[in-house]
Amino acid sequence: MVGEAGTEKKPGKKSVSSEKKKNKTITLKLPGFFSGKKADKQPKKVKKPVPISPLLQEEEDISRGIREPDEMALPLTEETEHEEKKGGKVTRIKIAPIVEKPDRGVEENRKELSKMLGTEKESRDLNYSKKFLRKFSLSRKADIEEYSFEKHGSLVDPELPPGYEYSREYWAEEGKALVYIALNVKTRLKEYLLFEPALTPFEYELLERLHEDLRDVLILTDEELGIDRKYLLFSKVTELLTYYGIHLDQRSLFKIEYYLVRNYLGWGRINALMVDPNIEDVSCDGDEIPIFLFHRKELNIKTNIKFESEALIALAITLAQRSGKHISSANPLIDATLPDGSRLQLTFGKEVTSRGTSFTIRKFREKPITPIDLMDLKTFNADMMAYFWLAIENNMSLVFIGGTASGKTTSLNAVSLFIPPLAKVISIEDTREVTLFHDNWIASITRDSVSEGGTSVDMFMLLKAAMRQRPEYILVGEVRGIEAQTLFQAMNTGHTTFSTMHAGSVDAAIHRLENEPLNVPRNMLQALNILSIQKQMQVGSDRVRRSDEVVEIAGIDPATGNIMVNTVFEYDTLTDSFRYTGRSQVLGDISTLNGWSKEVLLDELEMRKAVLNAIKTQDLRDYVNFTKVIQAYYIDRQRVVDNLDNLSRITT
Question: Do the strands 292-295 and 279-284 form a parallel or antiparallel pair, or are they unpaired?
């Protein structure tokens, strides 16, 4: 690390005497050395500590067979001498080799480092810092072997704690983070036990040392811009280990690299939870309290991870900063979006939560669920998806309603993949959740005020702005305020809109819409075509999500003034299946609009079912391939029909 730069003598001018003006120097802090001092009038010889503690150096040398346990470590001495150089005095260090190596390339690198450093702790060279960092830049690329589970095996040695019964296991991160689902004998509840690579005392202290020294060398040079961050980190670590004179065995190196990547590029101790695809929500309730998860298979489950107060506060600050937000005692509550799209709710310290800092992360699926996935999960069936496809193609507006975590937004995103390829789409959300494979799409999100007196952008403002952009489809993440009025005005002016809202039934949804704070006039509700009610329910031993019913808004009863609804599909809890009631006003309107007979309408529905079933059978379920098939159907229907037996010809 470079200290404060001293005043330099300008070229061509005479030197000022040391009595009038002292020459200032640049102080460099080298890893593992103590700062040097200027020589006294009577020079002294001083011995300084070696870069790595003698205990660790001894352990490392013994493990590599360089010397016997009782052999002394190679000396590193610092000799101080007088040297008159342009009126100043300089302290010099003479470095003995830490370990003699037969590799000529490493030896040359050590000599070059010594030459560059000039063996000086105090240097008058203003470019000293840049030269030092250049030695650790990627201009000298090292051969880095990446970890492979198939080639190098597991880095984890799990041991089930006493008091637990093994249930099953899987990798959260292959070879590096292993999960045991185990039954706690005392509580009779299953728990999520995470195992990571175990470190020896030597590896642990070396890791701490690397953490400290990487702060000095993780400074990007011009030639390093744009390089993969993980490769850059590994390169710096390799250079530091060479500088220390340490050769680790491959397994130890991989373990240290895992923790460095986890802490520098990942999310620290919760990184394995963030990369585990089976986890939906991560919840921390306070200091020294185990983290709880919502697991796709195990549902709510406790983990073996907990944080002390200071570590939890540090994690909270990291989460907030990476989300582009600030959290403190003055601003102890934030809602944010993590860089990967996950939703974050965070409270700081004990300002508003008495048990300490808390957070909840609702993880974002990088690859969104498609209608095929919902069919596999039995949330909907093929008839319902064909119905939604035909309705969306013909500009029918729909709203998904349900309780928390009932799959409303997931279903909204899935059916939005039926939107025609060239239609202009605008999505409006508090936190980004909708993901489409669609070019003509504007994804807008709300924003809090960034400074005192600044302007915050809410959903109402975004919706008003969207109305001026002539969209064909408007997707609103959730309506909960005055933006509902604008949303229904958009429906009444011919814009197709999809949205979600919290409600347990059709009656509850209409009641919410007509009252504070939404206040949508009843006459405007007629513009809404379809409501899908979703619920979480128990099927056998599994907790599942199902569409309880799909209903249509049929208008207002002129006699009573009540909203009339028509149920199109309903869920049968006994058979875990859906039943079509045989009547649909939406399909009747579509038939009239297109001039179709009943037979043609049924053929259209059957053809769409055949396409969906073919996609499912051929496992083209990822959202990119799925959207390519749907868009190809819009552009050249006959081509899709001709290739139903092999739709990969269309997606490639």
Answer: antiparallel
Q: What is the DSSP letter of 69?
A: T
Whether this prediction's pTM lies above 0.90 is answered by no
Cα 486–chain centre separation: 33
Q: What is the pLDDT of residue 605?
A: 95
- The whole-number pLDDT of residue 430 equals 81
B/e letters for 60-71, b = 16+ CB within 10 Å, e = fewer, are: bbeeeebeeeee
* 213, 171 contact by CB (below 8 A): no
Between CA 479 and CA 484 the distance in angstroms is 6
DSSP per-residue string spanning 303-363: ES----HHHHHHHHHHHHHHTT---SSSS-EEEEE-TTS-EEEEE-TTSS-TT--EEEEEP
Closest Cα partner for 462 from 441, 476, 481, 478? 476
Q: Identify the helix (H) or strand (E) that includes residue 60.
A: helix 54-63
Count the helix, strand and coil residues of the chain and give each as a percent rounded to the nearest 5: 35, 20, 45
CA-nearest of 269, 289, 265, 293 to 281 is: 293
All residue ranges of the chain with pLDDT < 70 are 1-143, 221-224, 449-453
Beta bridge partners of residue 166, listed in sequence order: 182
Strands (DSSP E) found in 511-631: 530-539, 542-556, 563-572, 577-580
pLDDT tens digits for 570-586? 999 999 999 999 899 99
Task: For residue 102, give the amino acid letter.
Answer: P
Report CA Rg, the chain: 33
